[in-house]
Specification:
By secondary structure, this protein is an all-alpha fold. Helices cover about 70% and strands about 0% of the residues. It contains 1 helix and no strands. It is elongated and about 25 Å long. The chain starts with 6 loop residues before the first helix and ends with a helix. The mean pLDDT is about 75.
Length: about 20
């Protein structure tokens, strides 16, 4: 996990990636 970015941004990116792969 990248800790250089805000947690909310990390969650947003993770959610988008999850949706794209789903």
């Amino acid at each position: 996990l990248i800790t250089d970015v805000p947690s909310d941004l990390a969650v947003d990116v993770g959610a988008r990636s999850f949706n794209l792969h789903k």
